[in-house]
């Protein structure tokens, strides 16, 4: 597919006889944010290192923008931005000098590099500290400088390892906005994280790693359906009409269960459907003369899916 930027087939990494990554398959598309999740030691970092050509593969293949990272690591490094857990800038140099250094490695002509550096630093809101030494930067600023480097490179793929770890809520919010900015610019973003609510807020799809394998892959809704059973739950609070009758008549609705006793003024119902039926529910209740006081999405969070999956996996072991 023309949109594919990374394709792994049967990708495997052995350390001795230990299968750190065990025959995994995945495809990443241009402009998507893809999350790598899983407990410590599940194989996420090893997978990232293989995509970057920083460690050999033991089997299978991985294609990054049409290149083999093992045989063509420089082609891959030129086009892929990498933000490791500990960002490796030279502390005694300024932000500008650090980015100039990268631009020289990439053989970007000097004048163009200067423009790209200024634009990239502007895009991550660090323009005012361009000539400050990196030793004075907070962790949040270093992470943003890492994003600036990716922007300056015009990378087509960005690989971010735990990008928001150690950041306060405001810095996290800002960094996630910058990651969304990369997506808007058409960059495919892979990010590994343990912080599930943040992953959920930014990722289009996630892969759940367990013992070197991808146990589950898809959107959060798809994963919730696989792990917790089919159906999209919502909560409806309404009155002034035959609310349960209306709810049962909506296409796709599977179950309607009262949440507590229904009174004269109406009540609350938990509705499970084969998709998100909130728009249809609002429309039908209002056009039937009913009054809608609450309509809440009860779709399970990634955290609930994750916890449930690993509890089941532990029980089955
Ligand atoms: N250089 C190495 N030599 C031997 N074993 C290794 C090496 N690097 C990783 N491993 C092992 O490979 C497995 C996968 O490790 P990896 O670092 O990829 O996991 P991870 O999912 O990234 O974990 P974390 O969330 O802690 O970063 C683990 O069992 C780890 O001990």
From TrEMBL:
Molecular function GO terms recorded: ATP binding
Q: Which PROSITE patterns match?
A: ABC_TRANSPORTER_2 (PS50893)
Q: Which domain of life is it from?
A: Bacteria
InterPro entries attached here? Answer: AAA+_ATPase (IPR003593), ABC_transporter-like_ATP-bd (IPR003439)
Q: Does the keyword Nucleotide-binding apply?
A: yes
Annotated keywords: ATP-binding, Nucleotide-binding, Transport
Instruction: Provide the leader sequence positions.
Output: none
Task: Tell me the ranges covered by the ABC transporter domain, including all copies.
Answer: 6-236
What is stated as this protein's family in its record?
Belongs to the ABC transporter superfamily.
Protein's name in the database? ABC transporter ATP-binding protein
